[in-house]
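OP here, attaching both records as promised.
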Amino acid sequence: MVAFTQKNLNPLGKKTGDCVIRALSVALNEDYYKVYDELYRLSVKSGYMVNDKRAIEKLLLSYGFIKHKQPIKKTGRKYLVGEIDSLTKENVVVISCAHHLTACVGGSIYDTWDCRGKCISNFYTLN
């Protein structure tokens, strides 16, 4: 199971609904406001909100990430966020789960809370 590192990249230290910006900032190794600005510009162009999965996916694809569909175990059970290391050995992974986005870098989930027990919806790896 991957490790968990509690980290809040919100510049004002707020705990708010900004998981998309925080996760992408970690995965892209970019400034919080730069990611926010890119998502905002993409949102204006596309008509999708900054936290819409279609906007997120467009941004990730533009950075060279590859989308992987929801993984299912041979038993029919879903993989948990904490089990991402058994699916890929990539160093940078963006993971989508129910109502949340998080990033795993170097074998650790970086987030404001420990979401390793949530089921993976789909995930993105850097090409």
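Record two, same layout:
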Amino acid sequence: MSSPKKLKENINDLSERKKENSYSPKAWFILSCGWAFYLYEYILRASTSVITNELMADFSISAGAVGTLAAFYYFAYVPLQIPCGVIADRFGPRKVVTISALLCIVGSMIFAKSNTVHAAQFGRFLIGAGSACAYICCMKIASVWFNKSSFAFIAGVSMMMGTFGGIFGGKPFAHLANTQGWRFSMVIAAVVGCIVMIISWIVIRDKPDGKTFKNEEHKLLDGLKIIAAKPQNWLIGMYGCMMYLPLSAFAELWGVPYLMQRFSVTNETASYGAIMVFIGYAVGCLSSSTLSDYWQSRKRVMGLSAFATFFGFAAVLFYPGLSFSETLAVLFVSGFVSGFSILYFPAAKENNPTKYSATSIGFTNAFVMVSGLIFQPLLGALIDHSWDGNFGADGAPIYALKDYQFALSAVILALLIGGIIVLFFKETYKKD
């Protein structure tokens, strides 16, 4: 049995190590590199929202085909979520982020140089494959380098960094594409990716003691079995899928053309709508842990998020008296309350063993990203279904306001379903 003096020394040593891991500049610098990659890949993800008309004209395709082209990102991203969680737990974020950035670079170049829609789809597929581990690696860094009490806050800030990428993928990318062409803009994005890749390899370390994850976890697939066996994990994932639609379906793709049609504005001006959603979502993510701590509940905050977002986007779509500036304000508020839903990641982590943190995040994120895989092409197909068959002088289809409203109604229905799912949640909040 240890002496009281020795026990006190051990406790003090543990406290010092926890403090060092949570507040040292090194820990934050490493996490910042993870954030930089997540921001970068989100720019690539959201960039198609401001060049939909260009893609339709360049490849002579319809809205449904553009939705499918954009969704090729998710065709790779979604199936890789669980493997990426296992890989991040097994090998650590340094190698994973570096290789992932390389895939994004190659995918961006193929997309930029594509002469056929199939080549463009392959480029988007590689971008999705490279992006799959971005958020998971941020969460892995948080779980290794920071205290448990910081996890919900870091989850919110990490998602906020991603939404900043969505902002840069809006008006700034639209301006770049309008002045330099969308192809050259993707080449520039590939060059930025090279910088992110090199810095990540130099800076990121897998653990505070410098050791790798090799040979540490021998039965990670057993952890996946444990996670998949819990019904709560499936409910949390389905909720996340519904609640991510304001970003994946609206802000990342169909929101800009909808606003262009409704208010007769350019893609640069309409991109402010997507930006408002991203900014609101970022602030909401950052505020979610504070509100959850105040209420001492994950479930109540996630329920508020679902129903408030439902009413906000219903107003954006169907309230006829909104001006463009008023619509931007409503989109900001809707994005803000939808950001509270990010608590599905802390809820997933709290519902599973800590040593499988990245695997549980990957399992949840697979559900979340199914929203883009399903709804981006689905909304495009619904737009085509409602379309009256008119074409413009450039050969691109001309869609009416009713076509976008008909398609985006699916988002409203999904948000309502998300609110209903919350009613079946078990509370995971525990006071630290």
